[in-house]
Amino acid sequence: MERPSGFRGVGSGARARPGATSYLIQTSEGSILYTGDFRFHGTYGHLSEVMVDAACDADIEAV
């Protein structure tokens, strides 16, 4: 499958539960943020920090 032009995706990494991963999908039309699971503690807490930083820099159209 070919990625559409102007499309970029950022994931926060695997979590303990299915569906708990956050995704930031960026296109030339704007960005969509799927929050998944924001946890700032535990083994993967730093990945939530990375996602928040990426989201702050994005022009988010929908959450």
Q: How would you describe this structure to a colleague?
A:
The chain is built from 1 helix and 4 strands, in the order βββαβ. The protein has a 4-stranded mixed sheet with strand order 1-2-3-4, with helices on one face. It has one helix at 45-56, and strands at 8-11, 23-27, 30-34, 60-62. It is α+β, with helices and mostly antiparallel strands and 63 residues long. 19% of the residues lie in helices and 27% in strands. It has one domain (8-13, 20-62). The relative contact order is 0.25. This is Metallo-beta-lactamase domain-containing protein.
| Beta-strand share of residues | 25-35%
Low-pLDDT windows of residues = none
Query: Reading side by side through the largest sheet, how are the strands ordered?
Result: 1-2-3-4
Helix content: 10-25%
Strand and helix order:
EEEHE
Our count of domains comes out at: 1
What structural category arises from helix and sheet content? Answer: alpha+beta
For the secondary structure, the number of strands is 4
General form:
elongated
**Oligomer type:** single chain
Query: Helix tally?
Result: 1
Q: How far do the termini sit from each other?
A: 25 Å
Task: Report the biggest beta sheet as strand number plus sense, adding barrel if it closes.
Answer: 4 strands, mixed
Mean pLDDT: 74
What value does the Rg take, in angstroms?
A: 12 Å
Structure summary:
This protein has 63 residues and is of the alpha+beta class. 19% of the residues lie in helices and 27% in strands. It has one domain (8-13, 20-62).
